[in-house]
Amino acid sequence: MDGRDKPGHDGGGKRRAVRVVAAITLVIVCLSGIFIAWVISLGPLPLAKAREISTSIVDRNGKLLRAYAMADGRWRLPVSSKADVDPTYLKVLLGFEDQRFYDHHGVDPLALGRATFQLVTRGQIVSGGSTITMQLTRLMEPRRERSLYAKLRQIVRAVELERQLSKDEILDLYLALAPYGGNLEGIRAASIAYFGKEPKRLTLAEAALLVALPQSPETRRLDRYADAARTARDRVLDRMVEEQRITSDDAAQAKAVPVPRMRKSIPILAPHASDQAAAIMKDAPVIRLTLDSRLQKVLEPLAHDRAIALGPNVSVAIMVVDNDSGEVLAHVGSADYFDYSRAGQIDMTRAVRSPGSTLKPFIYGLAFEDGFVHPESLIDDRPIRFGSYAPENFDQTFQGTVPVRKALQLSLNVPAITLLDRVGASRLASRLRQAGANLVLPKDEAPGLAMGLGGVGVTLQDLALLYAGLPRLGTTRRLREVMRDEGDERDPRRLMDQVAAWQVGSVLLGTPPPENAAAGRIAFKTGTSYGYRDAWSVGFDGHVTIGVWVGRPDGAPVPGLIGRVAAAPILFDAFARTGKLPAGLPKPPKGALLASNAKLPLPLRRFRPFGELLRAGGDQALHIQFPQNGSRIELDGAGGEVSAMPVKVAGGALPMTMLVNGTAVGQIDGRRQRLIDSPGPGFARLTVIDAAGATDTVVVRIQ
Known about the structure:
The strands form 7 sheets. Strands 7-6-14-13-12 form a 5-stranded antiparallel β-sheet, sandwiched between helices. It has a 5-stranded mixed β-sheet with strand order 16-22-21-18-19, with no helix packed on it. It has 21 helices and 22 strands. It starts with 6 loop residues before the first helix and ends with a strand. The model is unreliable at 613-619 (pLDDT under 50). 36% of the residues lie in helices and 15% in strands. By secondary structure, it is α+β, with helices and mostly antiparallel strands. A hairpin with a 5-residue loop joins β6 and β7.
């Protein structure tokens, strides 16, 4: 019998086979354990670090205004493959680097096999076997050595990455990290630096170049090795033709395009607003402002050019505000951010300066609100003294008796101070502060008459805020430059009565415009501070308010610097550069008195200074005895009918005119009393004007 046929022989063979299998299994288990331990030792993927980007400031539409380099000096901007990149680039990128990107799970065996076959048959690397996911892991964990271990590490990390992120997230991260030479990372930084534009619209030549550069970013830097970059770009185009992704004619046209040889600067628009926003929101990678980059882009050159024309060391600041929302649409803080001779890095929209005559409209507004003067009233412009203070007009002449409308349009000083004496400087200051403006008075000084001519400090931002309250018919909103997700907590603040605000706007609309400018389109006011240090012009239409400041940041005088000559032309040019025709102002609100001087109530036809009123009225001043200021009045009669409301007056000179919410309702009789129809539930302002022009006003609540 053959020994192989013995029963014991089969048993021994089986045992050996079992031992071999067991040994192999043990080896596999050990190797698997070692591999798993090695994978665990790699730790988590450094996603947080990979997602770090340069702080970007964007406008209201998401367009880049300014970016700040990262702490190590690199430029890396956020990017979305779907929203920020031209489809042509994505087509070339995936066709050249990873044709099966959306099909594999981090590693493409077919691509690895193809790359190996091409290397063997052609003797050179024709296409890489690394997927975009593998390349991304190499960017996240950069290593210089090229070895089997390094490739294995990439494969493992790529599989991990695919399990944690979606394909779009992986592609976005690659587009943000891909190197382009020097301190440029990501397609947005590269496109802006090399082409001067966002990668949303790329030509075929530009797309192929941006695909070629990351393969060897330092040896293909456009600012150093442009010829090598062009050769690499053309190879990408040839590959696209081979794979029938583009036509040979398209490739030939793209090859004929020269490559850039210089880097462009990363854009810096609205630098002052950007600096302020970055300081406030330190941890935000992307900060969205309310600014309009298109408007900002045309106003910055305007400020620069006009400052140069006005002379050395002169700067210009411009602020554009949306009337309805209070959002800042343009913020030009200086003539040139990098011009040290003009102190360009100082934000002159926030600098406290003397406003000159720019507060006069608010004096007139309170006078209109109080009911003792009307735009068609007559007022004297003649020498007058208030104690030791004797105001004079800018040209040191006097116009005599003029309509109040003309007095404001010509910015006459004496009528403004006369009205301020009647309104009260403290009341004016209180109302402007209530509206949101921060007035700065000299230390230990109370508001005085001089503030009507610029004797107080104010910023261009606060002036824009106040003037935007006029087309809003008497309410202001705190200015906003940074867009936030939370609700709008900027409740409207009271500036003046609706009718008064409309009257001021109507008067300013008739201000004579600068030379060669159209009249009657923009309501505006100019101002010049003492010593020719500051020139102002602030204006508005139905949509926006624009403020302009001109002067030297160091406060030195500039001979001949006048608001009407230096600032007003810039204001009108700024309105023209908005690209829209001036919008009409609001219609007259209910209760507005539209009448010529001859048809005004007698006390409103001519304004008399406070001193003359005392002489005309004798010892007994005009006073509303009933109802008292701040009182509540129940007027519901029997059957739900609303009864008439009595008004009783003491003192004053007859005849007297009664106004309810700014509308004349008749005269007070000889007994100095009158019954008036109730204006309805709510607050009502009752004003009495006597024959001498004296007034008294009370505000009551009717319920």
